[in-house]
């Protein structure tokens, strides 16, 4: 059975599914992303008070549902009743998914409903820790080969690495900073990459992170470079032209067209 990186190709990540077109991190959003050509579902997880791993970017409920409060303080039997399409709008006036029965997703439901999909899972919750619960679920459903684990916080990423075995990871923010510092400073002598993929924005403040030179340096180290969150076709084309390996987008259909066009001219 192949692993997450078994196929060498330019990759399209559906950011929170197809978050520009449907309520983010929901089953309809993930289904739409895959139908539009996403190779990988990018998603985020927290846990309910009773330990259910819930797909949500925010620790709170107000931005994406008709609920309120902190997700981790509520039981799943309350969370599963919320309308996860309630807040979605493209123009600030129309809310086409309200009352359509869209609910918060569990990570288990994503694995079961999309059994062939690769999943890029960012563990967001630090306290109480949920790394072991996430990994237990991945292993119970035999999904190790189709998962990449991500975390912004270094403490979460270190916990992932202690327990993940052969499951591949990206880089924490501190590890990205180390890579950037070495690229702009002492270099990579005796450097061993912590993860398999740099998942970064094009720029951070005034610092341009993704350049032809930084991508080439990552490739020399055996790393892939995945850039978030890219929704403009012109920017996608420019990034693909300098060799990035993945586009993370709210509009995976646009990214699919860009990636296929770039691949065709290689």
What report would you give on this structure?
With 266 residues, this protein is an alpha/beta fold. The strands form two sheets. Strands 1, 2, 3, 4, 5, 6, 7, 8, 11 and 12 form a ten-stranded mixed beta sheet that branches. Strands 9-10 form a two-stranded antiparallel ribbon. The protein is 31% helix and 18% strand. A hairpin with a 5-residue loop joins strand 2 and strand 3 (53-55). The protein has nine helices and twelve strands. The protein has helices at residues 27-35, 76-79, 107-113, 131-140, 154-163, 173-183, 212-220, 233-241, 252-264, and strands at residues 11-15, 40-47, 53-55, 105-106, 118-123, 147-150, 168-169, 197-201, 203-204, 207-208, 224-228, 246-249. The protein has one domain (11-264): TIM Barrel (Alpha-Beta Barrel).
Task: Provide a brief overview of the structure.
This protein has 266 residues and is of the alpha/beta class. 31% of the residues lie in helices and 18% in strands. The protein starts with 10 loop residues before the first strand and ends with a helix.
CATH class: Alpha Beta
CATH level-3 fold name: TIM Barrel
Number of helices: 9
Termini separation: 28 Å
CATH architecture: Alpha-Beta Barrel
Uncertain spans:
none
Helix content: 25-40%
> What coarse outline follows from CA principal-axis ratios?
globular
Taking the sheet with the most strands, its summary is: 10 strands, mixed
What percent of residues are in strands? 15-25%
Give the mean pLDDT: 96
Radius of gyration over alpha carbons? 18 Å
Number of domains: 1
> What is the CATH superfamily label?
Phosphatidylinositol (PI) phosphodiesterase
Kindly name the structural category.
Answer: alpha/beta
